[in-house]
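Mods, move this if it's the wrong board.
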Amino acid sequence: KYLVVGAAGFVGRHLLRYLHHETSYKVTATKLGFETIDTSEFPEVEVVDLDITRPEELRELLTAIQPDVILHLAAQSS
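Not the wrong board. Structure tokens:
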């Protein structure tokens, strides 16, 4: 099970496409509430709103999905 944190960005979209088409992993992707991820290309990917600055939300998600691998792409560029 893979958890892709910050999947709504440029790299995240490409990574989701790769994981969906080239692997058989169960994938959960996170995004901020105002971001969008077009899942029409990879409908099996579960998309979850998550603000990683809120530890209780992060803990809840990790407990629920228990990922084997976490790919952290969340960043703020300025």
